[in-house]
Amino acid sequence: xQNHPRMxxxxxxxxxxxxxxxKQNESVKSLTRKLIENKQLEIVSGSWVMTDEATxxxxxxxxxxxxGQQYVNNELNVQAEVMWxxxxxxxxxxxxYLYTKTGVKRGVINRIHHGLKAFLRYHGAxxxxxxxxxxxxxxxEMYTHVLPYSHxxxxxxxxxxxxxxxxxDFKRINHFTCSNAAPVPITDSNIRKRAxxxxxxxxxxxxxQGSNILLSVWGDDFRYAxxxxxxxxxxxxxxxxxxxxxxxxxxxIRFGTLMEYFDALERNNxxxxxxxxxxxxxxxxxxxxxxxxxxxxxxxxxxxxxQERELHSFIRASDLLTASALIxxxxxxxxxxxxxxxxxxxxxxxxxxxxxxxxxxxxxVMKDYSERxxxxxxIAENMLRIxxxxxxxxxxxxxxxxxxxxNESSSKKMVIVEQPKTILIYNNQPHGRMELIELQxxxxxxxxxxxxxxxxxxxxxxxxxxxxxxxxxxxxVFSAHLKALSFVHFTIQKNHAATTEITQxxxxxxxxxxxxxxxxxxxxxxxxxxxxxxxxxxxxxxxNPKNGLLEAIYTNVETDGTKRLRCKQExxxxxxxxxxxxxxxxxxxEVIKLKMTEAExxxxxxxxxxxxxxxxxxxKQRLSVNNISGAEENRLHMQLRIDIRKxxxxxxxxxxxxxxxxxxxxxxxDSNGLQLIxxxxxxxxxxxxxxxxxxxxxxxxQDRSKRLSVLSNxxxxxxxxxxxxxxxMLDRRLSTDDGKGLGFNDDGLPVDxxxxxxxxxxxxxxMTVADNKQQRQQRRFAYNTLNAHLALQSLIYQPNIFIxxxxxxxxxxxxxxxxxxxxxxxxxxxxxxxxxxxxMILHRxxxxxxxxxxxxxxxxxxxxxxxxxxxxxxxTTVQKTLLNGIKQISEEMPYQMMTFTLEPADFATYLIxxx
Length: 915
Prior knowledge:
Layout: E1 9-11, H1 14-21, H2 26-37, E2 41-43, H3 58-76, E3 82-85, H4 94-100, E4 106-109, H5 114-122, E5 127-131, E6 142-146, H6 162-166, H7 191-209, H8 227-247, H9 258-272, E7 277-280, H10 302-325, H11 331-350, H12 363-392, E8 397-399, E9 414-415, E10 421-426, E11 433-441, E12 446-450, E13 453-454, E14 457-464, E15 469-482, E16 487-494, E17 500-502, E18 504-507, E19 523-526, E20 533-535, E21 539-543, E22 550-555, E23 563-575, E24 592-593, E25 600-605, E26 609-615, E27 619-626, E28 635-642, E29 650-658, E30 666-671, E31 675-678, E32 693-695, E33 698-702, E34 706-712, E35 716-721, E36 725-733, E37 756-766, H13 773-778, E38 781-782, H14 786-796, E39 800-805, E40 823-831, E41 834-844, H15 862-873, E42 875-881, E43 893-894, E44 906-914
Parallel strand pairs: 1-2, 3-4, 4-6, 5-7, 9-11, 14-17, 18-19
Antiparallel strand pairs: 5-6, 8-39, 10-16, 10-39, 11-15, 12-13, 12-16, 14-15, 18-25, 20-21, 21-22, 22-23, 23-24, 23-29, 25-26, 26-27, 27-28, 28-37, 29-36, 30-31, 30-33, 31-38, 32-35, 33-34, 34-37, 35-36, 40-41, 41-44, 42-43, 42-44
């Protein structure tokens, strides 16, 4: 490129650039910076990887974007100005929104429904303005170009005829083939003919797009890896360009960057007074030109999807706790934390890739991802230890709920209670909350002592989520009121205590096989089928006495206004002969009901909560309600352990049939946890895969009077059927290749399933009727209610539990104020270039305020709460920036002088400096 100044090239994923960059000498680095400065080399997106948009959660996407953009800004002194996202299998509005918050206002996408592409071409909307539903001032729209044909390769880059374009892919002179005429080197004898054909192809493209400014991307997977191709493409194309520019009166053509394309496009729009089409919404599901629906990957390999969420939670907790400990840490310790968390964060960012979190890589690659995630969890564990040591001057703490090996779920440590134990609990949320704390203990005769003396607790049989079996161990359960971003500690001692109650085992069955697996300390009581339900003061859960599955949920049971929602559950599976890691192609539209006749079912009942167990061959389910005040009163929890390793060519689902009003129901799934997108149920022509949508964190079913929110800590695919019933895909085991790139061999087939634990929370709320039916039908997006929002935060960000021998004398005390309950503290993350500064990122969720439920969370005004936090952290100055922490919005000033405000659905990012 140095010798060919007319040449242009773009680079997207920074993870690969970083690997190359670290091996280069200063001469090469200087040349690279010069090529960028000359606008020959363009850095696009700037994110660590090109993220998937169906299964990712927005805080992890933000980390991915920041990690890459910070790196290229520090190393190359450049900021990306265009988003390039050619390969994800469908697109949502949230990722473009996040890029606009970093200053990137232009983008290129590709894989959208092929019928919609034809529609956009027909209406001259190949470049369009992508707007957010909630953005009334259009401040965060992205000017978006969608690649107009079926793929991003050269065959689909010069016009509507791939056979013509193939003749201009000059690598095919001696590599690969074309179906018709093969490419030939350009010579004096053939240049006129070859130039006229190429120009004609571009003219067809121009007519189809309704634009005389065209973008043609010239590359493909695994291209430009050898110097030979650089010469083949450049030397032949430049001859054609020069000939066309000299001899054509209607066409000018040259190499360019994406920025140059958008600049030319906007100049042309201004001159000709062209107003681009506007679009809002998303592009799911994706159907390619072959007719396949790419909806399987929403669910493929859920173990790894769950593992990613765990790593995100651990890194975030490490960010927050190391920030709290920073004023007590030496320069060397700060450097270690910065270096180690950078490694962990980059592995998390790597897994956001559209062939990683999607589960669409070969088996050995998925194993490598998993090992990286596990190693990063261990890094985060060590950072938590360093933080506790700095805060408490003690390194005697063990961390609970950490996986022991890379291919198993997190497990609970056995707490031996022969000697007193201190349980230290850290609330990683910026607002107070009530949580039930669970510990595996060796002896049921224990007392739990809080700040003001003994507290109520219950003893349950311990269900090992790793093995999927009941054990002779015990589960200690007690409630904890957790203050914002603070610690609370309890002492556990061996003692007979009236405050600790051993739960009863209730069963409608005459005999229980499970009794031989649990301790004889538990009393088993046979009850009638009419008594087989879960109940607290506010909620009653009706169960099927034959298998323990959900039948109905009653709310407001303490009043005369009790409401019933039928929610009949079943487990089923689809047989599949053509599905693969990417696509869903079912053998039959009808599901096969999973036999649950052999399932063992019983209730564990105590004063703090009740749990209904259903233990079957493939599914282990626990439904629970917590008898604690506050937001928990209206929640039903469902924990599943799924193990389908003995199934074949099966796609496992759980279904819920409701009795909502069919003509009045609305259905939403979330977009990366930022907003809810309204979905439609289409006549699927016996193809359920057509109606599957991504559910990264939530799905909503709502009629005019009530809303059912289903929140999840694992991404899934979901659909409705008959409008009022919902179906969630849980796992898939497939022995066929779908032809999308993995290959039909042992390493390419997604048969490497692992047992996976996943959790859901059901929130049922009565809603006000604010709109008429027509207005509701026209509504295209929504937000979670505050209860659903907090339930999701509780699912994803469990309290961090630390266990130590002996009695803790000095617990770290923080007198912090709760943030407003709709404000999410994404992170206080280290910066790779400055150990004394960090990036604090806040997001204020959009909240649906039409619920009739009373207030469930009490926060303070943001400005005072944030200043109190900064004071406790030892912050000296603060500076507001764009989301990526690069472009400054305000001057650096003492934090006391800053006024902190944040609007709904918006972000606030601050560079904070420590002592």
